[in-house]
């Protein structure tokens, strides 16, 4: 618990630093591209189009999902996935890649994964804004249920940070962690109801899938944007479970981070 309190304090004191580094990283990542920051939105948009073509047109025949066109149902869930997937992948490598740059400075190392994720958050918000405009044009107008997006975006960011705090620490100690995380995320993508519905699975497996936080987050985005449901309240058991899981991962990540922090230079 002391590690968690120390971590949260360090993050709070470094908010301004995290924001500036995130914006700087965005510019560095796109400095050699003619379209610049546009690629932060265009790249996932191209992948979305391909997923819709394969899973929407090819496998489902463009059938609606609970009265919602498949393309909208997919966009609401997959926009969250692109943010978390890229944030976790890049965040896992952050300490190992950037440690030598800050090794001789009094630098809060826990901000390395957080500023990487914050940079991805900016791209996510831009992409989500475009998706929302597309929904409005198609007749899915803003409602009071949009308030839930604040919670689900914050929870997505928190999960990404909690996971990367742990994995970025372990990746310094064991380099194979980066490849393991990449493989696990690929598996989780296809095991999560982002491109398909789990309603044809046995009831036991459907209940088991609800332990996956991506299940809760993707359906939460859809409830806020498309279905006009108070998902947080209607599924309060899942809400409590995911908040508890987040707290556990944060505590585990904080404990590991501060345990190995002073020895990072030895491992690298």
Unreliable stretches: none
Q: Report how far the terminal alpha carbons are from each other.
A: 27 Å
What percent of residues adopt helix (DSSP H or I)?
Answer: over 70%
Q: Strand portion, in percent? A: under 5%
InterPro entries: ABC2_TM, ABC2_TM_bact-type
GO molecular function: ABC-type transporter activity
Organism: Edaphobacillus lindanitolerans
Protein name: Transport permease protein
Account of the protein in words:
This protein is mainly α and 268 residues long. The protein has one domain (2-267). The chain has helices at residues 2-13, 15-29, 39-59, 70-102, 111-137, 147-173, 177-191, 203-209, 213-227, 231-234, 236-260, 264-267. It is globular, with a radius of gyration of 19 Å.
Short characterization:
The chain is mostly helical. It has one domain (2-267). The chain has helices at residues 2-13, 15-29, 39-59, 70-102, 111-137, 147-173, 177-191, 203-209, 213-227, 231-234, 236-260, 264-267.
Secondary structure elements and pairings:
Layout: H1 2-13, H2 15-29, H3 39-59, H4 70-102, H5 111-137, H6 147-173, H7 177-191, H8 203-209, H9 213-227, H10 231-234, H11 236-260, H12 264-267
Helix pairs in contact: 1-11, 2-5, 3-4, 3-5, 4-5, 4-6, 4-7, 4-9, 5-6, 6-9, 6-11
GO molecular function: ABC-type transporter activity
InterPro entries: ABC2_TM (IPR013525), ABC2_TM_bact-type (IPR047817)
Organism: Edaphobacillus lindanitolerans
């Amino acid at each position: 618990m002391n590690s968690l309190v120390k971590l949260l304090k360090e993050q709070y004191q470094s908010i301004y630093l995290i924001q500036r580094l995130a914006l700087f990283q965005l510019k560095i990542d796109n400095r050699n591209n003619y379209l610049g920051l546009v690629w932060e939105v265009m790249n996932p948009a191209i992948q979305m189009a391909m997923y819709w073509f394969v899973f929407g047109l090819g496998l489902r025949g463009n059938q609606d999902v609970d009265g919602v066109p498949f393309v909208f149902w997919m966009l609401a869930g997959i926009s969250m996935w692109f943010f978390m997937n890229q944030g976790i992948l890049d965040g896992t490598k952050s300490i190992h890649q950037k440690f030598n740059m800050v090794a001789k400075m009094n630098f809060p190392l826990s901000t390395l994964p957080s500023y990487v994720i914050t940079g991805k958050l900016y791209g996510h918000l831009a992409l989500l804004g475009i998706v929302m405009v597309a929904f409005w044009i198609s007749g899915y107008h803003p409602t009071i249920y949009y308030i839930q997006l604040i919670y689900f975006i914050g929870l997505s960011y928190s999960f990404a940070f909690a996971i990367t705090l742990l994995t970025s620490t372990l990746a310094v100690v064991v380099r194979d962690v980066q490849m393991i995380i990449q493989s696990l995320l690929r598996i989780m993508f296809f095991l999560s109801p982002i491109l398909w519905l789990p309603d044809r699975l046995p009831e036991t497996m459907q209940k088991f899938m609800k332990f996956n936080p991506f299940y809760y987050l993707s359906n939460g985005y859809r409830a806020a944007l498309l279905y006009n449901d108070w998902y947080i309240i209607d599924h309060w058991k899942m809400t409590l479970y995911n908040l508890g899981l987040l707290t556990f991962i944060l505590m585990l990540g904080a404990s590991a981070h501060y345990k190995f922090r002073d020895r990072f230079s030895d491992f690298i």
